[in-house]
Amino acid sequence: MNFDRMARWYDRFMNWRDVSPIRIKLNNARIIIDVGGGTGVISQKISKDVIIVDPSQGMLREAKKKGMSNLVRGVAEYLPFRNDIVDAVICTDALHHTQDPEKSISEMIRVTRPGGQIIIEEFDIGRWWVRLFVGVIEKLAVMKPQFISAEKLTEIFQREGYRVEIEPYTKISYLAHIVL
Ligand SMILES: C[S@@+](CC[C@H](N)C(=O)[O-])C[C@H]1O[C@@H](n2cnc3c(N)ncnc32)[C@H](O)[C@@H]1O
Q1: Of all protein residues, whose CA lies closest to atom 6 belonging to ligand 1?
Q2: Exposed (0-12), middle (13-18) or buried (19+): which is 128, by Cβ within 10 Å?
Q3: Nearest to residue 51, comparing CAs of 90, 15, 25, 78?
Q4: DSSP conformation letters of 101-123
Q5: Which protein residue has the closest C-alpha to ligand 1 atom 5?
Q6: 14 CB under 6 A from ligand 1?
Q7: Which ligand 1 atom minimizes the distance to the CA of 37?
Q8: Hey, which of 97, 98, 106, 108 would you mutate to test ligand 1's pocket, going by the most ligand atoms within 8 Å of its Cβ?
Q9: pTM to 2 decimal places
Q10: For ligand 1, is residue 42 a contact (CB within 6 Å)?
């Protein structure tokens, strides 16, 4: 999907999520990266200091207009950070857009310090109507989403030895919270 093309319109449709459940979990994390953070629609409500990592120049341009200044053009599969360097990773509505979600998760784990946390929002495809709804929308938009159910996400992190807390987020998505 070409996020560059939809960048200017993106927030009109996506600026409705309540960020407080994410902000509360972040507590006093200082170094936060927003993987696939796009226009910064979520991270701008957390802190202007959040580092957005995204491959779309158009989306990053929109983030810059909001005053977000820590912008990194890159992909989740190869995060351009040292090991154990960040206090928290957030990744909302983006993991299923990556070409390799499992590699992206292992990169999130690699860059997060012990005791740090990872917060992921994904569509709750365990519910059939969510699967139908987002599947149709994203297929119409010529995306090739690789949706990850809460069960699958839990299994991936458990394999790495981490416990995952899952909670409902929006009507169509869940939040996964992992403390390393
Ligand atoms: C639906 S938007 C989500 C933006 C924002 N996180 C939000 O919650 O609204 C998906 C974002 O994932 C980005 N993206 C696509 N492939 C990616 C990859 N391999 N690594 C990181 N981000 C990617 C897109 O450029 C886009 O900005």
Answers
A1: 37
A2: exposed
A3: 90
A4: HHHHHHHHHHHEEEEEEEEEEEE
A5: 37
A6: yes
A7: 6
A8: 97
A9: 0.95
A10: yes
Residue 40 in contact with ligand 1 by CB distance below 6 A: no
Sequential pLDDT tens for the chain (180 residues): 589 999 999 999 898 999 999 999 998 899 999 999 999 999 999 999 999 999 999 999 999 999 999 999 999 999 999 999 999 999 999 999 999 999 999 999 999 999 999 999 999 988 888 878 877 777 776 667 788 999 999 999 999 999 999 999 999 999 999 999
**41 ligand 1 Cβ < 6 A:** yes
State in Å: Cα 96 to ligand 1 middle.
9
Closest CA to 81 of 116, 43, 121, 126: 116
Residue-range domain boundaries for the chain: 3-179
**CB distance 175 to ligand 1 below 6 Å:** no
Assigned CATH class of 3-179? alpha beta
Residue 120 CA, ligand 1 centroid: distance in Å: 12
Residue 85 makes CB contacts below 8 A (sequence gap 6+) with 31, 111, 113
The Cα–Cα gap between 45 and 71 comes to 16
